[in-house]
Design brief:
The protein is built from six helices and four strands, in the order αααβββαβαα. The chain has helices at residues 9-22, 27-42, 58-91, 129-134, 141-147, 149-158; strands at 95-98, 104-112, 118-123, 137-138.
Length: 160
């Protein structure tokens, strides 16, 4: 439905100020938002839980919802990986690396009493305390710490 609204130069200036302040550059959308806000003050039962603008197209609404789902998924993944990242850094003395496909890995050093240390890399989701018990020190943690004082100091610093 189309209607004509007459307003003064002062009202026009107010409308332009609101357009700049809100970022809503469509005067029609701005007026519709103002009516909805004003109406909700008098008739709160009619207020709908809507996000976005009243003139939001279905495509814009779909894009907004897709972005919201993406952000939620990223937050859930971050919360799920936080303990794994901490174990990698504190328990294994490792670092987090991301490959060209976006997969996260824990890169750590396997310490050996005799021979050269070895660099190891495992998917971040597979990081677990059992790795520190079975694969981090060869033959075992006590032997490495007694023979290699610098490794003992390194792990004491990590666990402070």
């Amino acid at each position: 439905m189309k209607k004509t609204i007459n307003y003064s130069e002062i009202h026009h200036k107010m409308l332009e100020d609101l357009k700049q302040r809100t970022g809503i550059l469509n005067a029609n959308a701005l007026i519709l938002n103002a009516i909805v806000d004003y109406h909700s003050g008098y008739f709160p039962a009619y207020v709908k839980n809507t996000q976005g603008l009243p003139n939001e197209t279905p495509l814009e609404k779909a894009e907004r919802k897709a972005n919201e789902k993406k952000l939620l998924k990223e937050a859930e993944e971050k919360a799920k990986l936080a303990p794994k990242i901490e174990m990698c850094e504190k328990l294994l003395g490792g670092t987090i690396e991301i490959n060209e496909n976006g997969y996260k890995f824990c890169k750590f050093t396997q310490y050996r009493a005799f021979g050269d240390d070895q660099s190891c890399s495992i998917p971040l989701l597979q990081v677990a305390p059992i790795i520190a018990e079975t694969s981090l020190f060869i033959p075992d943690k006590q032997t490495i710490f007694s023979k290699r004082k610098e490794i003992k100091k390194l792990f004491e610093k990590l666990n402070e």
